[in-house]
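Ticket #4471: structure output looks truncated?

Reporter: J.K.
Steps to reproduce: submitted the chain below (138 residues) through the standard prediction queue, then opened the result file.
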Amino acid sequence: MNDALFERILLPLAGPDDADRTARAIRPHIESGTTLVICHITQGESAETAVKTGQDQFAQTTYETFVSLFDRSDVQLRWATLEGREVAEALTDAADILDATVIVYTPRDLDSQSRLITADPGSQLVRNASVPVMAFPE
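Returned output as attached by the reporter:
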């Protein structure tokens, strides 16, 4: 992989199940020395994305699930619990706030109707992010 591109990866996790899938999917592909900024987004009222201080129990469980499965001492892990209105918007803001070089995620299984209703956050992310976006299949 390109060292500069994958230097500081922003990795969103929706919850413990997603943390499990994501850790298993990306673990073999992450090179030594990489920094993973693992984030969870909570619903916020403000139009501005904010990095929250502290973590709620759900975010903490999500992070612990990821760490238990990822288990690599050669990769730096950082944590950021974000507050925002829309997931894709919060992630594009977070990429800038947290100096990410790329956003990596595992897509959620959404049927066509769900994609229409939710406006498919993955597509919004790809269109609006200021850094490259990479999706890893399960």
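Triage note (M.O.): checked the attachment and the full token line is present. The first strand starts at residue 8 and ends at 12.
Status: closed, working as intended.
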